[in-house]
Design a protein that fits this description.
The complex is a heterodimer. Chain A is an alpha+beta fold. Chain A has 3 domains: 155 residues, Aldehyde Oxidoreductase, domain 4, CATH 3.30.365.10; 183 residues, Aldehyde Oxidoreductase, domain 3, CATH 3.90.1170; 300 residues, Aldehyde Oxidoreductase, domain 4 (2-Layer Sandwich). Chain A has 20 helices and 27 strands. Chain A has a 7-stranded mixed β-sheet with strand order 3-5-1-12-9-10-11, with helices on both faces. A 6-stranded mixed β-sheet of chain A has the order 7-15-14-13-8-27. A 4-stranded mixed β-sheet of chain A has the order 16-24-25-26, with helices on both faces. In chain A, helix 7 packs across helix 8 and helix 10 runs parallel beside helix 11. By secondary structure, chain B is α+β, with helices and mostly antiparallel strands. Chain B has a 5-stranded antiparallel β-sheet. In chain B, strands 11-12-13-14 form a 4-stranded antiparallel β-sheet, sandwiched between helices. Chain B has a 3-stranded parallel β-sheet with strand order 1-3-2, covered by helices on one side. The chains are: A alpha+beta, B alpha+beta. At the A-B interface, helix 20 of A face helix 11 of B.
């Protein structure tokens, strides 16, 4: 069954409307079941003992006293999670991160765990576990860690990607480079050059729901895991591999998810819960506290970035260069590499070079955070672009329009672009009323652009037509932003029936083929493609059944607006058969009617956005308020515009928090100082203005409806847009994110003192 | 763990005095429960004081106001007379936590939690509020600034508890104000704060003044010199400059996750100026 994924330019009747989401009522009435809302008979409480040291050798662990405490049913250490990774270095890192094997590598690193009959007993048991540490020197700052004299986190790491293998190990795991042309030649042609260094601090996704799971391992080798995740199939693979289970015997069910943003794409507590359950012989519920979420899940990188951009007097950029250092936590990653790829992706450049360095630090393992690595690179680049426009005496928007990438441009990271939205978003911003609104004293306006790749990947869906003519759609991508509504709209559109007759669910890992996780803005893009394919397969069967009911050749049956139509004059007296009519007879025409689809969704169209931001800065305290904010982004096709707008607003809101106040603060002792929402300051409602949105639709040629991913791009421009706005408000270029009041006030004082 | 809900101060004090392990007083619980859930404390005895007669009331007396130890901060905001007399104290109490927290938390709890960043305390110190302390050997009345002795520590002896906070009756031409700096708009904790309480003479010159700073030292600071510099002035620019300088100088802040020493010094002065300006207007000064 060949599926043609090309854009068809069709008209829509369901897609583009804004019905209520199927999970909405449960969520607002408190009935929705999240990770911690599931319980099993005989379930134990699991808790994890964590290292208080940033870097320490674990000399020994004595669990005997904890094991003797009444009510304790299992105590585990790394010995209970033997290394089954068979030389797979990335899996070994995941295993070591779940439970430290030889060294504790950050404050919060798991070293042991208990399962007990209640939380109090579990807490007491943790206090009875004796760990003998040999504390080592640590390093938490990305620049310090990259120095030659820095404490070594892993003495087996020799920087990859250099021309020669280095003689000594270091904390820099990898060097990557992207670009084309000759930047030296380009800078020689420039009339103006801006060169600056920037820093961004580490932030957390800040999802409201902590990691939570219930694990149950049976003596016969079967197991169940109920878990809050962005990808239950991936969790199944990882957990099965780490515990030596057969994947088919581990059934993973994803709960409703109270936010993930990339942070729920990695396993942490789940293998531990399974190991506890296996040892105790009872189900184990493990729920992280907020403190644990901050200390021991996966925040984003802290970065240090140098940017140099040159332009001719006429506003043409002649060369652009960036060096990006990203922290990875204590395990290798490819975060700087992604930053190096995205940094200049918005622009048409003859000469461009970016170099990324991955840096190990004694902090939690970096995880994805919404367009991971792109916001920091965009902050540095878009700040420098703004400054260069000022030096040239050009309007910031016009300068960007002049240099914007177009269809056919060779991107700074390699590929040639198809139809893209950077130019249109800039034109929309140029003519937006926000750009002309007057500003008062101490206020400033900034704008910035952002890019994200968007991913596709492995996807499988089942579409089942009930005998009453209603449709159940089973998908394997976790719904993080309203995709059950969007995918129901797509099924309704393709079948030609009403949205109210489609009900979408997220199926468990035993009920559907493998799906990659919901990341890379792929959920709606990939699963809608698979849903269209499954619906088309179902339509083939529906036509076949109609042909049987009419007793005519199937070639003479077409499908229009939810009905089988008999083609041609000779069938003039046959009235169309609705999907409901055909479904009602399915029991006697060949049995249940279903459409199935499994595919690799290729061709996720790249995504661009341009944001505008107004701020007001109190010059006496450095306090910043965002007073107006506008997002303009290309959606390809907005399947459910309300949820597209929600993605635009959500990314901007998270970006505002990151830009102004959110940061991991470590003490000299290498311990995290602000592992809670009081001192890790995400914005509260009253901190945010109404975030205005404008959806552009430049169809993705590789999707039948033109859909592009929309979830991540919206967090790419905010750091830069707000930094440009603050810099314009106070007259000092801000180069360190977050621009917290002490940083702004210090910058102002430094300027006053000259 | 034992939970009791005594009906009289004597019973509460008696239980607290004879408690063997760690004991805690529960009014709103907005600090206590969070600390218990976080595993920071595990009290053996919890004495819930909300059922004790009079502790949940605000009484207007001949001398002023008597605010029971179990009165939630939100109730302060609903009391018209108190709001008119001591707007600075009320606005400070209504900045704590969120709306939900304000429905539970109390100014006595805020005082006894002994955080240097407590919002209501600088306002109470500026207001020269007093605390009625009940204990095994009877009752005594002390200045509120004598209660906290350091972060998390108070001068209260074993078995002692505060049963009420007293605020004086207001003369004519009086006003107070409280301001704190937080990076967000709400649901946050003061990085630095200032409370100012003024009375004016007939001509609009400042007759008495008290200035207190929060989150600027291990305990809330009463900056007497700052009060003196205001006396006799009509809050001209030069006086305000001197006020800021004195407040910045009086601070003994630390560098921490919430702010730097330099930031706290500078902003302490700015907030004192702004609070003084508001208090002056409230007192009818022009």
């Amino acid at each position: 069954m060949n599926f043609d994924p090309r854009y068809s330019g069709r008209n829509f009747s369901s897609v583009g409307t804004r019905p209520v989401r199927p999970d909405g009522v449960d969520k607002v009435t408190g009935r929705a079941r999240y990770g911690a809302d599931f319980n099993m008979a005989g379930q134990l409480v699991g808790r994890i003992l964590r290292s208080p040291h940033a870097h320490a050798v674990i000399k020994s662990i004595d669990t005997s006293k904890a094991e003797k405490l009444a009510g304790v049913k299992a105590v585990i250490t790394a010995k209970d999670l033997p290394d089954l990774t068979d030389g797979d270095a990335a899996m070994y890192d995941i295993l070591d991160n779940c439970m430290a094997r030889k060294k504790a590598l950050y404050d919060g690193h798991a070293v042991a765990a208990v399962a007990a009959i209640d939380a109090r007993t579990a807490r007491q048991a943790l206090k009875l576990i004796e760990v003998d540490y040999e504390v080592l020197p640590h390093v938490t700052d990305v620049d310090e860690a990259a120095q030659h004299h820095a404490p070594l986190i892993n003495d087996q790491v020799y920087t990859e990607g250099l021309e020669e293998k280095p003689a000594k190990p270091s904390n820099v795991t990898k060097r990557t480079q992207f670009g084309h042309g000759d930047v030296h030649k380009g800078f020689a042609e420039a009339d103006f050059i801006v060169e600056r260094s920037f820093k961004t601090e580490q932030t957390h996704q800040g999802y409201i729901e902590p990691h939570a799971c219930v694990a149950s391992v049976n003596p016969d080798g079967t197991a169940e895991l109920w878990v809050c995740t962005q990808g239950h199939f991936v969790y199944r693979q990882h957990c099965a591999q780490l515990l030596g289970l057969e994947a088919s015997k581990l059934r993973v069910t994803s709960s409703e998810i109270g936010g993930g943003f990339g942070g729920k794409t990695h396993v942490w507590a789940e293998p531990v819960a399974l190991a506890l359950s296996r040892k105790a012989g009872r189900p184990v519920k493990l729920v992280m506290t907020r403190d644990e979420v901050f200390r021991a899940s996966g925040p984003t990188s802290a970065t240090s970035i140098d940017v140099k951009i040159g332009a001719r007097k006429d506003g043409t950029i002649t060369a652009a260069e960036a060096t990006l250092r990203y922290s990875c936590g204590p395990y290798a990653g490819s975060w700087a590499e992604i930053g190096a790829m995205t940094a200049f992706a918005c622009y048409k450049l003859e000469n461009v070079k970016t170099v990324g360095y991955e840096v190990l630090v004694n902090r939690p393992k970096t995880a994805a955070y919404r367009a991971p690595s792109a916001p920091m690179a965009a902050f540095a680049v878009e700040s420098a672009v703004d400054e260069l426009a000022k030096e040239l005496g050009m309007d910031a928007v016009d300068f960007r329009i002049k240099n914007a990438a177009q269809e056919g441009t060779r991107s700074s990271y390699g590929p040639i672009y198809g139809p893209i939205g950077i130019g249109p978003t800039l034109e929309a911003v140029k003519s937006h009323p926000h750009m002309k609104a007057p500003l008062k004293a101490n206020q400033g306006r900034g704008m910035a652009c952002g890019f994200w790749f968007n991913f596709g990947g492995q996807t499988c869906t089942d579409l089942n037509i009930g005998m009453d003519g209603t449709v159940s759609l089973a998908v394997g991508t976790v719904d993080v932003g309203g995709s059950r509504a969007s995918l129901s709209l797509v099924a309704a559109e393709e079948l030609g029936i009403d949205y109210s007759n489609v009900k979408a669910i997220v199926a468990d890992t035993s009920s559907l083929g493998y799906n990659d996780m919901t990341d890379g803005s792929r959920g709606t893009f990939s699963s809608s493609m698979a849903t269209i394919s499954a619906a088309r397969n179902a339509i083939k069967i529906l036509k076949d059944r109609a042909a049987q009911m009419w007793d005519i050749p199937v070639e003479d049956v077409t499908w229009e607006k939810g009905h089988a139509i008999a083609k041609g004059e000779k069938y003039g007296n046959l009235s169309p058969l609705s999907l409901k009519d055909i479904a009602a007879k399915s029991g006697t025409t060949g049995g249940p009617i279903a459409g199935h689809s499994e595919l690799v969704a290729d061709g996720a169209g790249v995504s661009f956005a341009t944001h505008i931001c107004d701020v007001e800065v109190d010059p006496e305290t450095g306090s910043t308020r965002v007073i107006r904010y506008t997002v303009v982004q290309d959606a390809g096709k907005a399947v459910h515009p309300t949820y597209v707008e929600g993605q635009y607003q959500g990314g901007a809101a998270q970006g505002i928090g990151w830009a102004l106040n959110e940061e991991y603060i470590y003490g000299k002792d290498g311990r995290l100082q602000n592992a809670g929402f009081l001192d890790y300051r995400i914005p509260v409602c009253s901190d945010l203005p109404m975030i205005d949105t404008q959806i552009l639709e430049i169809p993705n040629p590789n999707h039948p409806y033109g859909v592009r991913g929309v979830g991540e791009t919206s967090i790419v421009p905010p750091l830069a847009a707000i930094a440009n706005a603050v810099s314009n408000a106070v007259g000092v270029r801000m180069t360190h994110i977050p621009m917290s009041p002490p940083r702004i006030l210090a910058a102002l004082e430094a300027e006053r003192e000259g | 763990m034992r939970y009791i809900r005594p009906l009289s101060i004597e019973d509460a004090v008696g239980e607290l005095a004879k408690a063997v392990g760690p004991a805690a007083i529960l009014a709103g619980g907005s600090d206590l429960l969070v600390r218990m859930k976080g595993g920071f404390i595990e009290p053996e005895l919890i004495v819930d004081i909300k059922a004790i007669g009079g502790l949940a009331d605000i009484a207007e007396t001949a001398d002023g106001f008597r605010i029971g130890a179990a009165v939630p901060c939100a109730v302060l905001g609903e009391n018209k007379a108190l709001r008119k007399a001591w707007p600075g104290v009320v606005e400070a109490a209504n900045l704590i936590g969120s709306k939900q927290v304000q429905g539970r938390c109390t100014i006595t709890g805020n005082l006894c939690n002994a955080s240097p960043a407590a919002d209501s305390v600088p306002a109470l110190v500026a207001a020269a509020a007093q605390a009625v302390v009940a204990g095994p050997s009877g009752k005594r009345t002390i200045a509120v600034e004598a209660v906290p002795t350091g972060p998390g520590r108070t001068s209260l002896a074993k078995g002692e508890m505060i049963e009420a906070i007293l605020l004086d009756k207001r003369p004519e031409h009086a006003g107070d104000a409280y301001l704190r700096f937080i990076p967000r708009t709400e649901m946050d904790i003061a990085v630095v704060s200032a409370g100012v309480n003024l009375t004016l003479d007939e001509k609009g010159a400042i007759k008495t003044a008290r200035v207190a700073l929060g989150a600027a030292a291990p305990t809330v600071l009463l900056v007497e010199e700052a009060g003196q510099v205001l006396i006799g002035s009509k809050l001209d620019e030069e006086t305000l400059e001197r006020l800021a300088k004195i407040c910045a100088g009086a601070c003994r802040p630390i560098d921490d996750k919430r702010g730097t020493i330099e930031f706290r010094r500078k902003v302490a002065g700015v907030l004192a100026q702004r609070a003084a300006t508001t208090a002056y207007k409230r007192a009818g000064g022009k």
